[in-house]
Prior knowledge:
The protein is α/β, with parallel strands linked by helices. Helix content is 37%, strand content 11%. Strands 2-1-3-7-4 form a five-stranded mixed beta sheet, sandwiched between helices. A two-stranded antiparallel sheet has the order 5-6. Helix 2 (115-126) runs antiparallel to helix 7 (241-253).
Amino acid sequence: MRGRPAPVAAAAGTIFVLIILLLVAAPKLRTSSTESGQGYRPYTGSSDANPWKTPSPKDATGRETPDHLIVKVKIEGEDTSWVSTLGPSWRSEILAIEPMFTHMHPKAHRPNKGRVASAYLRWIVENYNCLPETIVFLPPADSFAKKNINLHDALSTLQTSFIQSTGFANIHCPTSKSLTTCNDKVLNVAKPSHEFRVLEAKIPAIWEELFGKEVAVPERLASVLSAEFAVSREQVKKRDVQEYVKYWTWLQKTIMDDDSAGLVWEYLWHVVFGKAEVFCPEREKCECDLYGKC
């Protein structure tokens, strides 16, 4: 019994030495695996000065510009064939986006922040020199599947002359449905209604970054929350293309989560395209002006 402590002490000493050797060798092992592109590879950011490939306007020479265009964002597996059945007066362009998040890793594709808004803004920048007269922007089907609207029927009766006269309109008119109402979705920017209403608290800083200090931050902000809207070429052109580049760049750089960044833009599209900060038209008038249901 008295002879056991010595072997135990020797074993403990051996283990201690092995641990020290492993600690010394670990940095070299990590460096080796990183350089070879295999094994553990921590996210260290990108050395690319322009990792997001900032969009720029395309040359309009020789390009055909339709009068009415639907810009439809789709995710993998979505059937968008219904868009082509709207009739010859409507042309369409389909934009595919990733259906899920990707890994934040130097060798992987990065998440498309504010996925739908990012796609819209990129399209506007790239086509700024060759815009159709009337443009309808539509998100993936899962964005409006639960809303009480048949987009095929709605767009078939859309009054494009009204879009030309007013510049911008949400495809949805305010209703009593919680997903498409307006006035009860107001952001009280000046006085957040609750300490957990984080978006309200963030809007002033976001507003200043997007629109500059010379444009006063509104006390209240509201519209029909959706990413489905129509806008005229003239209204889009009222802002310089570099403003849209700035908006797109903000989306890529923001640390907000993807859904929150997208929601910010649902609160801002009407402002970008010339409407008052609180833009909640009466349902009857909206349906009359937009779809001829008078």
